[in-house]
Protein: Flotillin-like
Amino acid sequence: MNYTFHAMSAEKLSFLLSVVSTIGPRVDDFGSFLRRNKWRDSQTREAEALKNQAKASLFAIKQKAEGEPNAKFKEADGDLYTKIKEVEGLRAFGNGQGFYVKTLMDSFGGSYTVARDYLMINNEIFENIVRINSDVVRGLQPKISIWTNGGDNLDGFRWG
Structure:
């Protein structure tokens, strides 16, 4: 229900006043009283359900808000753990390689040349060099010509 008031002053201010009124049950009609209570109970249950739904939504939002930093922190911890393990693995690999080289050098009496030649033979470096060079020559497709004096006589050329 709305009431409009006009103030009696030089400015003649008008304003709107909203009014809510509650009508209760008739005192002499018990059925009216029961219907009102039933209606009020349904309104109360509905309001409680909405209130609980709002609380649940708020709780979910809070959990999500609190969970995101925790999830990011856990993700950062996982990344850090992975990096630490990678560094430890590299350190262990380097220590193993150092021990291997030291053992080789000790085996060959400290001779770098002998240790280098051993590693080149063991890792098939010479075979790879020969293969690469032969591939290069094959790619050039060389034309090899043998010059003779015109006959089948190859005097001066010795086989063997």
